[in-house]
């Protein structure tokens, strides 16, 4: 009986270890999954949505209009500037309820357009009210 319990305990640990939840967005082209599952993120902190994104966010702009929103891109500013105006570049727009304290001039030089861990700390608790995805990768 003890061996049976030990066996089940070991199997349970192995199964629970191997069943880690995978992030919803594995590649930039899967960003549309965030829009499809928008209800899962509405009225929750931005950090919950960010945890579901595996590809690195390489370019971000915060817009302080009402409603405030972030424009996330999976390509760098340089890559973006090389693209044609006609290209439908993939963009993830996340609108937040609270006013956004985003001052481009006060961001660290050379990192004005980068999404950092400090940004996650500063903006992670903002409440998501809308998600919009445009373009393609």
Structure description:
- This protein is of the alpha+beta class and 137 residues long.
- 29% of the residues lie in helices and 18% in strands.
- The protein contains five helices and four strands; from the N terminus they run H-H-H-E-E-H-E-H-E.
- It has a four-stranded antiparallel sheet with strand order 1-2-3-4.
- The protein starts with a helix and ends with a strand.
- 16% of the residues are buried.
- The model is unreliable at 13-19 (pLDDT under 50).
What key attributes describe this structure?
four-stranded antiparallel β-sheet, 4 strands
Compact description:
The chain contains five helices and four strands; from the N terminus they run αααββαβαβ.
Strand order of the largest sheet: 1-2-3-4
Class of secondary structure makeup:
alpha+beta
User: For the residues shown, what is the average pLDDT?
Assistant: 86
Low-confidence stretches: 13-19
List the helices and strands and how they pair.
Blueprint: H1 2-18, H2 32-36, H3 46-50, E1 59-63, E2 68-73, H4 77-82, E3 91-96, H5 117-123, E4 128-134
Antiparallel strand pairs: 1-2, 2-3, 3-4
